[in-house]
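TA notes, week 10

Several of you asked for a full example with nothing omitted. So below is the full record: structure tokens for the whole chain, then the designed sequence directly under it. When grading your own attempts, check the secondary structure regions first.
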């Protein structure tokens, strides 16, 4: 066995375990606040399922975004090695990974997301994943909303102290014992009979809401943290 192959196997084996414990420890040490929780709460209390959308760079702490008991949640993750590591880590939190992307070429993933929504599972995805462009919504999430009639609820995350990596997605890693905030935005609904212009309008609307929410989250702790 070559050294390169050994390294790949070690990453595949240790990666999910390490990712899980990084998220777990951060969640145990951080203090969270949620803004606009009434938006998803009103939907969940009616027994409805939705599509949740957030930027790739804000993915790490999303297992702590939904704390309602009894929710079935599926995450769309990249079929590449990094995505599979994330998917296995999310399974440890009780979530079901769906391998694929939000591009038009992700046909298998698209069918699996449709099936998950039909089975009563919330589907969480990154509309700029798996490789960008950063903070640009790909059309797949809009088409999924059109076909299922499910609203897309934008959500973002930021923290008071953090490291922003120089990666394509500007990945955010919060520091232990920092303060975190999740912010939900107004749902985006798509007409089943909407034409191409309508889909593009909704794509741009979701993109704007996610960017506005993220900008707000990044400056949230410029003000005193409320108890």
């Amino acid at each position: 066995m070559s050294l390169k192959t050994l390294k790949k196997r070690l990453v595949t084996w240790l990666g999910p375990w390490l990712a899980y414990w990084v998220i777990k420890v951060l969640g145990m040490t951080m203090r969270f606040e949620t803004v606009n929780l009434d938006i998803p709460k009103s939907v969940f209390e009616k027994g409805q399922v939705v599509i949740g959308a957030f930027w790739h760079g804000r993915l790490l702490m999303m297992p702590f975004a939904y704390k309602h008991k009894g929710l079935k949640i599926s995450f769309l993750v990249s079929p590449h090695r990094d995505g599979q590591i994330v998917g296995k880590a999310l399974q440890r939190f009780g979530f079901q990974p769906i391998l694929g992307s939000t591009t038009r070429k992700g046909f298998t993933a698209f069918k699996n997301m449709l099936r998950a929504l039909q089975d009563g599972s919330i589907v969480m995805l990154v509309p700029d994943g798996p490789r960008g462009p950063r903070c640009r919504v790909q059309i797949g999430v809009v088409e999924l909303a059109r076909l299922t009639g499910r609203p897309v609820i934008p959500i973002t995350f930021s923290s008071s102290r953090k490291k922003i990596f120089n990666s394509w997605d500007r990945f955010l890693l919060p520091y232990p014992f920092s303060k975190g905030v999740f912010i939900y935005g107004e749902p985006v609904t798509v007409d089943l009979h909407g034409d191409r212009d309508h889909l593009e309008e909704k794509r741009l609307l979701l993109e704007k809401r996610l960017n506005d929410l993220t900008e707000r989250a990044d400056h949230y702790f410029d003000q005193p943290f409320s108890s």
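The chain has a mean pLDDT of 87. Use that as a sanity check on your answer.
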